[in-house]
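Much of our argument rests on the idea that a fold can be written as discrete symbols. This step matters because it turns folding into a mapping between discrete strings. The record that follows shows the chain in one-letter code together with its fold in token form.
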Amino acid sequence: MVITDTTPKVKSVMEQISELTPLELIALLQLITQRLAELFHPFRPQAVQNEKERVLQTLAATGLVVKPVWDMPFPPISDAELAELAQKFTVGRPLSEIIMEEREQGW
């Protein structure tokens, strides 16, 4: 790859890079790699998914995570169903208040 940008800032950086020792150059490359990963992380959902799967596979291989041996008896509910249930169950006072009152009454 040839760098064709000849701005003074780029020239200055290139001159400084050319004076680095191999160990300094490796450290710089590691910093640049880390920074690029931070910058582009939100734009790489597949990479995030791959990393998640890799971590889960590692945990499973060590026995720290085990997949259940049973199937779910019913499919997960949709967002609309969840909103409907939340609306139905938010009637009245919070359960924590009811429990505190019952404790005060000696239940």
